[in-house]
Amino acid sequence: MAWYRKLHWQIIIGLVLGVVFGITAAASGWSKFTSDWISPFGIIFINLLKLIAVPLIIVSLVTGVASLSDLKKLSRIGGKTIAIYMATTVIALIIGLAVVNIMRPGDTVPPEMREQLEATYAEEAESQAGAALATAEERGPLQAIVDIVPENFLSAAGNNRNMLQVVFVAIFLGIGMLMIPAAQAKILYDVFEAANDLVIKLVEVIMIMAPIGVFALMADTITSIAGNSLAQIAELLAALGYYCIAVLLGLAIHMGLTYTAMLKFLTPLNLKDFARKIMPVQLVAFSTSSSGATLPVTMETAEKELGISEEISSFVLPLGATINMDGTGLYQAVAAVFIAQTLGMGLDLAAQMTIVFTAVLASIGTAAVPSAGIVMLVIILESVGVPSAGIALILGVDRILDMCRTVTNVTGDLTVASVVAASENQIAA
Ligand code: ASP
Q: How far does the centroid of ligand 1 lie from the alpha carbon of residue 251, in Å?
């Protein structure tokens, strides 16, 4: 097959052209044209992915659970999955802390730039911090568990922010099917299985549009960050470049060392093949900044390309999109310490341990949507006594970092899914 017919190449071309178009548009004052005529294609692409995410989780998880011979297996796989997800997030946080403490990017921001950033983003920071703290205050200690159980199925399915509720309903349905007489369950099972094939087909159809969707999303992101002035982006990057490098370096180390080691030692997969096959997932994650919207692509790739059984992927991946956010955690660790450094506050070892603890818990509660990580950062900052208004310092470059941390988040989900599948002998490699 000619190289340009391959999906990942087409998406890369879409992405590059989107960046080129976005820069040209920002430089030539075409941001209105871009938002009127280009951005809608990106929105349609994201909407299609979100549209398919909930039905996909339901049908694949119900068939996954209903095909289990015993429930012990479900709890074994569940326990293993959650333990590995937590462990990788802790490693990501430690890498983030190590990088930011060694590089000390906060020491490089000149005081006048700090004041300027604080003034520019003060309002936005205040509204983000206010909302995050208000919700945090209302939450009791068991609220995270309460949140998993929806009171109404349609509102759970209608709210793309809380995939965990949908996962809960699907597992509940699947368990129920194991408990009714086999003849009745069989009818339902066949319907769900047929629906599952249908939904996977629809994901393939949506992916035909991916290159155009990614083009539009990139063009839109660049023009909306830059407005009609590219100089603004350059100025921001100059001030916060060192901080961005610290985050990116941390993400690269985590993907290059932690994930690589896990794949090499714990799965039969070939690293190069893995990297090539998951590229479309990473590109969609990068351009949508949402692991939730990327989930249909993640699941299709796991089953069709990596050979992970449906039983594993349908359980591990939706769970991962919701609770496993290594990239987000790493970013939060770097950002929290960076803000403290810029404000001239030192964070001792105990404070940094608090960051690890709070960030692991926060990553579970973080919605898989754009900018969710910065809202949770507010809670982390509060826990170590750094003023949450400090997020004003980093808001300007948040979108770019969000795109990158989302790539790490989905790569982590796929890595863990491969490891769990390999440990259960459910990967065809
Ligand atoms: N955008 C990220 C995700 O969906 C979450 C975040 O870090 O803001 O994975």
A: 13
Residue nearest to atom 6 of ligand 1 (CA): 373
Strand-pairing partners, residue 308, are 427
Predicted structure pTM score: 0.90
Angle at 291 between CA 84 and CA 139, to 5 degrees: 75
Please indicate whether residue 369, judged by its CB atom, sits closer than 6 Å to ligand 1. yes
Instruction: Name the residue with the closest Cα to ligand 1, atom 7.
Output: 373
Distance 290 CA to ligand 1 centre (A): 5
Domain boundaries, the chain: 3-68+84-423
Any atom of ligand 1 within 6 Å of the Cβ of 405: yes
Q: In ligand 1, which atom is closest to the CA atom of 321?
A: 9
Is any atom of ligand 1 closer than 6 Å to the C-beta of 96? no
- How does pLDDT run across 123-147, given as a tens digit for each residue? 778 877 777 776 666 677 787 788 8
Classify residue 184 as exposed, middle or buried by CB count within 10 Å of its CB (0-12, 13-18, 19+). Answer: exposed
Decide: residue 350, CB within 10 A, 0-12 exposed, 13-18 middle, 19+ buried. exposed
Tens-place pLDDT, residues 148-161: 898 888 877 776 66
Domain 3-68+84-423 has CATH 1.10.3860.10: yes
Count Cβ atoms below 10 Å from residue 102 Cβ, excluding itself: 9
**Is the CB of residue 290 below 6 angstroms from any atom belonging to ligand 1?**
yes
Identify the pLDDT of residue 126.
80
Give the DSSP per-residue string, 280-346: HHHHHHHHH--HHHHHHHHHHIIIIIS-B-HHHHHHHHHHHHHH--HHHHHHHHHHHHHHHHHTT--
Residue 282 near ligand 1, beta carbon < 6 Å = no
Q: Give Cα 168 to chain centroid, integer Å.
A: 20
DSSP 3-state percent helix, strand, coil across the chain (nearest 5): 85, 0, 15
Ligand 1 lined by 128 (C-beta under 6 Å): no
Q: Distance from first CA to last CA of the chain, Å, rounded?
A: 22
Question: From ligand 1's centre to the CA of 296, what distance in Å?
Answer: 16
Query: What percent of the chain has pLDDT above 70?
Result: 97
> Which of 129, 99, 108 shows the shortest CA–CA distance to 334?
99
Q: Distances from the Cα of 324 to the Cαs of 68, 251, 361, 409, in angstroms?
A: 24, 14, 10, 7
What is the residue whose two structure tokens read 């400090």?
390
Does 402 contact ligand 1 (Cβ within 6 A)? yes
